[in-house]
Amino acid sequence: SAAFQRGQRARHLAGDLRLLRAADLQPPHAGAAGAALRRRRGSRTGRREAQRIHRKRGDPMIAATYAPATEILARDTNWDQLRPRMGEAVGETPSMVGVTMIVGGLIGLALGVLLYVSRSSGVLPSGPLYTLLNVAVNFVRPIPFIILVTAVGPLTKLAVGKTIGTEAAIFVMVIAASFAVARLVEQNLMAIDPGVIEAARAMGAGPWRIIRTVIVPEALGPLILGYTFAFIAVVDMSAMAGYIGGGGLGDFAIVYGYRAFDWNVTLVTTLVIILIVQAAQLLGNFLAKKVMRR
């Protein structure tokens, strides 16, 4: 429909303007001549003319946004221009994931331990506490991250003062990671042999001492694997955070790859994310094996 086509053109124009700001360029088609050019953007002649103007300015990345997909070739990716920004994105992703894993991991560990010990068979049984925590985890955990970003928008603005940017993305990632880790911790603690806990009780150990010296150390190996899984899930969240300008590799792939119709950028970014995940999985497997051998 005409309304849908107008919406598509508006979205493409917004992407174009963001690319121009990122490249620190001024639109070469401003003024009356630019207005005539924009009126012809939908035609093949208009696209070729816009592409020619941008290439003349030495920015084939922006020129690619006006070209048909079949014309996007490797030579159109200006890696000299993109390499510094990609380096920043590679550094932003580990920092976002690291902060989320430290804060969300500690909150999730506390919630998971409380879920385990407050069961009717736990060392600190409490029906109301277990029900409250169980409902909270079941309420938040199934929500897709991209929907959660919107749902907690008012809370995000109250906490960090804005709903877009890296800080806002990290805040939402911490919320999502906390409840996901809580369930992972509870499930791993459920695998502990009840006989070990009963033996500690028989020797006179109190509930908190059992938690510190028996429950957590006994489940340390599975917990490491669980946190490795959580790390990979948080990397996925950081990629989706690009839709709210969260920075990192996800934002880089969306702005310079998807919106610029440059599939080379998307492919390279995907490979970098895969390498990060593979390195994390190998490290997690190594640490878990070392712990479980002791």
Question: What would your notes on this structure say?
Answer:
Helix 5 packs across helix 12 and helix 9 runs antiparallel to helix 12 (220-240). The longest helix has 39 residues, at 79-117. 76% of the residues lie in helices and 0% in strands. The N and C termini lie far apart (66 Å). By secondary structure, the chain is mainly α.
Helix content: over 70%
What's the total count of β strands? 0
How many alpha or pi helices?
14
Residue share in β-strands: under 5%
In short:
With 294 residues, the protein is mainly α.
Give structural attributes.
mainly alpha, elongated, 294 residues, 14 helices
Helices and strands, with pairings:
Layout: H1 2-22, H2 31-39, H3 44-56, H4 60-63, H5 79-117, H6 127-140, H7 145-151, H8 153-160, H9 166-189, H10 194-202, H11 207-218, H12 220-240, H13 248-258, H14 263-293
